[in-house]
Design goal:
mainly alpha, 48 residues, single chain
């Protein structure tokens, strides 16, 4: 029996894709947070 059977490959790929999605979601969240901060900063600047 080889280690690279279908079940193990699928398990590995699922784990890999889950990790990649987690990184992608974190990046999107950071960008959204940055947009909010910039928007608030610009609003404060305009008011002064």
């Amino acid at each position: 029996m080889g280690r690279n059977n279908e079940r193990n490959i699928k398990k590995h790929n699922d784990k890999l894709h889950k990790a990649q999605n987690k990184v992608k979601q974190a990046e999107i969240a950071r960008k959204e947070k940055l947009k909010e901060i910039i928007k608030k900063f610009n609003e404060d600047k305009v008011q002064e």
